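Write out this protein's structure.
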Amino acid sequence: MKLSYFKIVTIGIIFHLGSLAFAGPTGALKKGFIKNDKGDKCWYKQIVKEKNTHFHGSFKGTNGILTFDKANCMSDSGVGLDTNKMMINNIVSRWYSHSDAKFQTRVDELFKGSALQKKGQCIQSKTYPNIGITIDYIIENKSIAKVIHGTSIQSCKN
């Protein structure tokens, strides 16, 4: 389902029962794979959790929670985790906007956060300045085991 720029911005902040609720990943897959820096397929399962407070404390939002089947698949192969994070960002960002959004997915392009964001980082769209994606990588034993992602309240900021 393709959403217009107006609809994406409109659903970015929704008031629900006195607390903020954020639109989430509309195209997120329940199962799939992301290639790591060695070209291996790292299979994952994903759930979409509504009313999650991971990124914004008491403010509730819809987040995707992506868990890799093999916790060591997205590990550091000698060049750090940056390439693996970028590969994850490239896939996740497809679920949040049009293909022309041109999200800044390289690790050195990520922002420290967005409005009211307490955890993780923010992936900014170059095309749509008000659209950002919150993302948090859960690292276990020097490997990315899980990724939590959602819509930022406003654009990303440092």
